[in-house]
Design goal:
Blueprint: E1 2-7, E2 10-14, E3 23-27, E4 31-35, E5 44-49, H1 53-65, H2 67-78
InterPro entries: DUF4160
Organism: Rhodopila globiformis (Rhodopseudomonas globiformis)
Protein name: DUF4160 domain-containing protein
Length: 82
């Protein structure tokens, strides 16, 4: 597990032995999983547990703002994004 970003009280990680599609687990008071490219190309929330709506919104905003960086880090660790 590699911490690739800390923002807004959240820790964004990429697991080195993970699978496609490109996604990031996020940890704060709870946790969430966000795909880096959803159906329309924008990040997409997969699930969240133990987070308030505000924290889920903040997590999604962080990924939207840092999408290019996170995709680059995913590719550095896993290779090409499908």
């Amino acid at each position: 597990m590699v911490t690739v970003l800390r923002a807004g009280g959240l820790r964004v990680v990429i697991f080195v032995d993970d699978h496609q599609p490109a996604h990031v687990p996020m940890f704060g008071d709870g946790q969430a999983k966000i795909n880096l490219r959803g159906a329309g190309g924008s990040p997409e929330l997969v699930w969240a547990e133990g987070m308030t709506r505000a924290e889920v919104r903040r997590a999604t905003q962080v990924v939207v703002a840092q999408q290019a960086l996170l995709l680059t880090r995913w590719e550095d660790i896993h290779g090409r994004v499908d």
